[in-house]
Amino acid sequence: DIDSVHAADPLHATEFVADIFSYYKRVEPQLRVAPDYMTRQTDINDKMRAILVDWLVDVHLKFKLMPETLYLTVNLIDRFLEAKQVTRKHLQLVGVTAMLVASKYEEIWAPEVRDFVYISDRAYTRDQILNMEKIMLNSLRFNLTVPSIYNFLGRNFKAAGVADNKEVTQLATYLVELSMVDYTTLQFPYSMLAAAAVYSAQLAVGASDPFSHTLSRHSGYTLDAIKDCSLHLGALWRKAANSSLTAVHKK
Question: Where are the domains positioned within the chain?
């Protein structure tokens, strides 16, 4: 039982954890975006999305926000772009608005609208951001509670017994953040990405059992099931050093 060590700590809600992750896995397919949604956009493309997400990684760092906020920001962007046509002129507006909404949801002290006006070099006014916030929340039906890569990653660290292994956790997190910039990664569910990232990171540091039975059981995947995803993450890692999009690499 990977949760028994925290059984006495009410903050870990150990009696509910298994049910929570069972629920996450059940609703994940319903909340995934179509991996080809960008083909329906007429004025933007996957490269523009990558530039936006890369810039938002920098903004997230400057504002010193929690990891959850970045993951939710990218999720909101993808779900909104799947639902609405967006011009390239307004793509950055969608990005800053998504981070504003995610910050309000995740942070104790969220940046204010004026901070996002400033960080976007006054490309948009306060009213434009607030108006886009209304459009976005209505489009997404105010559904901000979604299974996140961050949730699955934390669970898999625990299942793999590496929660206190900085080398593995930092590398796995790095791989996942690289994947957020890359549109083609949407072909993989968040839960699979998290499992593949933990496996790939352990493989890279020479772990004796990089995909243990416990990790397989709690992630819900076999090693065969995550192989393609792991190869994809490896390719992103190799490309990262020479990419023009450097925010995650520098971070």
Answer: 32-139, 149-250
- The yes-or-no answer to whether 32-139 and 149-250 have a common fold is yes
Could you tell me the pLDDT band of residue 22, with boundaries at 50, 70 and 90?
A: confident
**Rounded distance between C-alpha atoms, residue 50 and residue 206, angstroms:** 31
| 149-250 is a CATH 2.40.160.40 domain | no
pTM as predicted: 0.91
Instruction: Answer yes or no: CATH 1.25.40.10 is held by domain 32-139.
Output: no
Backbone angles phi, psi at 8, to 5 degrees: -85, -5
